[in-house]
Every structure is written in structure tokens, then in C-alpha cells.
């Protein structure tokens, strides 16, 4: 599959916490650090997501903030 989003960050699922409608998916990034996504439970099921599965975090945004201390 090809996407127009430039930010496709590889990693593996570290944890999935399911709620009534949504699920919090924590992705351990290959380059270090974690990224958290909240998606629907239906999406978790249809994608067959499970802890340890290889995935891509895809970020498409018109605004990305940069901050310093």
C-alpha cells in the first residue's frame, strides 16, 4: 500500500488497552520511544492488532509544533 503521508514510523505494538468504544495502542518505535494512538475497537479487530505485531505509525498533519526548553 502506498500513502501520501511522509511520516511513516515503523515499530511494534507494546500494549493495547481497550475501552467501550476506543482502544489505546502504544507503539514502541524502532528508533526508540513510544507513540500512543487512540483508535476504535473495530479498527483494532479489523487490522488484527496484537501485542508484538509490527506496524507503522502514520502521521499526516498540516501542523506539527516544535518546542524547546
How would you describe this structure to a colleague?
The structure is a single chain. The protein has 69 residues and is mainly beta. It has a single domain, classed as OB fold (Dihydrolipoamide Acetyltransferase, E2P) (Beta Barrel). Helices cover 10% and strands 48% of the residues. It has one helix and four strands. It has one helix at residues 41-47; strands at residues 7-18, 22-29, 34-40, 54-59. Strands 3-2-1-4 form a four-stranded antiparallel beta sheet. Strand 1 and strand 2 (22-29) form a beta hairpin. The protein is globular and about 35 Å long. The N and C termini lie far apart (39 Å).
| Class computed from helices, strands and strand pairing | mainly beta
Q: What is the mean pLDDT?
A: 94
The main sheet comes to: 4 strands, antiparallel
Following the backbone from N to C, one meets helices and strands in this order, namely: EEEHE
Number-wise, the strands total: 4
CATH architecture: Beta Barrel
* Rg on CA atoms, Å: 13 Å
Shape: globular
End-to-end Cα distance: 39 Å
Helix proportion of residues, in percent? 10-25%
Supply the number of structural domains: 1
By CATH reckoning, the class would read Mainly Beta
List unreliable stretches of 5+ residues: none
CATH topology: OB fold (Dihydrolipoamide Acetyltransferase, E2P)
Strand content: over 45%
The strand order across the widest sheet is 3-2-1-4
How many helices?
1
CATH superfamily: RNA polymerase II/Efflux pump adaptor protein, barrel-sandwich hybrid domain
Amino acid at each position: 500500500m502506498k500513502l501520501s503521508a511522509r511520516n511513516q514510523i515503523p515499530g511494534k505494538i507494546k500494549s493495547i488497552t481497550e475501552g467501550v468504544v476506543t482502544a489505546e495502542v502504544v507503539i514502541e518505535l524502532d528508533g526508540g520511544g513510544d507513540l500512543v494512538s487512540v483508535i476504535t475497537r473495530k479498527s483494532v479487530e479489523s487490522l488484527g492488532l496484537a501485542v508484538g505485531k509490527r506496524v507503522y505509525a502514520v502521521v499526516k498533519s498540516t501542523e506539527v509544533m516544535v518546542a524547546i526548553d
